[in-house]
Amino acid sequence: MNMSINRRQFLSYSFYSGALLIACPLPAIGKPSATGDSSGALTPLVSISQDNHITFYSPSPEMGQGIDTSLSMLFVEELGGDMSKVSVEPLPYFLKRDSEGKITWQVVPQFSGGSTSISRNWTLVREVGATTKQLFIQAAARAFKTPETSLSVESGYVNLPEGRKVSLGYLTDLAAKQTLPEAFKPTVKARDDWKIIGKSHFTQESKKIVTGQPLYGMDMEYPNAKICLIARCPFLDGELKSLDDSDALAMDGVIKIVTLPRPDLDKFYTYLAAGVAVIAENFWSAKKARDSLKIVWDKGPNSNESTKNLHQQCDDLLTQKGQVVREDGNYQEAIDNAAKVITKTYKLPLVSHAQLEPQNCIAHVTEDNCTIIAPMQGPGGGSRHAERITGFDRVKMDVRYPRLGGGFGRRLTNDHVAEAVTVSKLAGMPIKLIWTREDDLSHDFYRPMGHHQVTAGIDKDGKVTAWSHRLAGTPKYYRRDGVEVKDYFGADMYVDDFPAGRVKNIRNEYFPAKFSAPQGSWRAPAHTANAFVIHSFVDELAMEMNKDPLALRLEMLGEPEALEYGQHGGPVFHTGRMANVLKMAAKRAGWGRKTSEGTGLGIAGHFTFGGYCACVAEVKLNADGSFRVNKVFAAIDVGTVVNPEGIKSQVEGGMNDGLSAALGQQIIIQNSQVVNNNFDSYNMMRMGDSIKQIEVEIVDSNEDPAGAGEMGIPPLAPAVANALVAAGGPRIRHHPMTAPLA
Q1: Is pTM beyond 0.85 here?
Q2: Average pLDDT value over all residues in the chain
């Protein structure tokens, strides 16, 4: 949904007519009690109490990316507040219907995903802060009978003439009664006047997190909500054949058992699987009862599916002709005339999100409304599910999203919300749905798998004159509503990625594999796989051509130029900015230096969602063939930097996340069911294998900001693979890098 009001209308909605501190009957979201009780005063983005404390209501769900801190910094910078007196809570969920009856956001879009939270709110949140400041200046001018031009706001106080000052908290009631002139237009600060933006701030909730205070969906409580666990069909698209629940119903604490039918196979998912829901007084009663259920499952239409067969299917597809989704120049002629043709194939598996906090949701369906309390990246999607299931108007629903214990794209789909709402409706009571770790790994929107075949033609002068990228894999858009098969490629193959626009003759070809496991967004989506493929292959070309890998990249990038980029992160990809971060990372790493025996350096860089990140990995090869990533030297350009500490944290965390996925993660399916459904068999990286040292250099830029949440992941795996070769190890063309594909 898009915001249906313009900026002027939003500022009017937020601040005119004494709106600054008018109390509204809105839920106290993100607090330990999720009863909906509210105290104090609230407006769409801010409340300021008499003790000068600022509460900022963030429109982007916080899932560890630090957006609460960064967005509040933008607001407080323009207000002239004190960051030490700021707290952040989720913005209550606001929807409305426009004049045509269409649902849209009442205030601003409420969503986190694709590293858009900063770029989407960059101008608006600062203008809201500047407008709020003006209300306090008007209030102070009236209270102290002094011209507005003689007043300023700094560190939570309005500075008055003759060295006097008055706190914002003292002026709140009067500021709430101010009306801005019709001609007022907020003016944001010049870059040179920033005191908060561009300075490092630790996350606003650090103390709460490390002291274990209740912040997450799993911590939430709701009056009379009973615990619910679901036994889901373990077979892809299977259904319930028979159930004996007599033993479970006889157990102490068990309240009710309801069944969930298999979702429609020809539509996008609401929830993921047929199931039997056990509702009990507490978790262990529900768990014990679920374990006692005697269930016979119909394996459904896909009972022979396995990852082994899937990989074979992809190999077979690559022997055929696929859908050509980009064709520049005359690829076939260039290949036919090339002095040398090089082809390599890279393979990546299905991967689970495995967020630390498993799925959970509180739902209460009454006779005429619905309450939802759940960790969600897109609460709009959760309310859409609830509307379809209940028939109730989602504009009127009570939807709340506490802090997420990890998201990574998993909580964009909201199937946990659909499950909880369905169970609450069937059971006629409020429930708190909890997934176990086994549930979470067995039922996911997995990162798509794929086999990538890349070919380059090199002319007699050592120039790359032809390039093809052929991808056979599981489509992320499988079963998406309104997406035709011919459009499946768009989520898995970014046709404007490097070296598009830099090699004259290019062909991209796509082969959708048939497989019934749900597919979805996994942190940095297709860039994670594509960067490994592209930048491993560039290194292989460099070896064939006897060129330095960095020099070849810079040669292929060419002169600085803004190229059209149609996918998310566009509208342009700037080759000069990409070259710059490559050179910065190389310089920081001492690229070209002599390393000790068994140690190698590898480089890679990628454009992801508007940002540029490059890294050099230093890898040590051990005598037994194992290896360890000792250091990573990274450079990142995401335009104007709001919080340098937040960017460094995202790069460091992203690179370890990317290494974890590359080293050992793969979902294994046999006979249509996931067989590695806990951390004893799904190999997340252990702390002892993490990167020993990461150095991050941030480009000082005046460009508009992009997000940083995805940037560190894509270049890490190819840099490690390239470094391993430089250390004397093998060329690894698949993930997981430390184990064979299942």
Answers
A1: yes
A2: 92
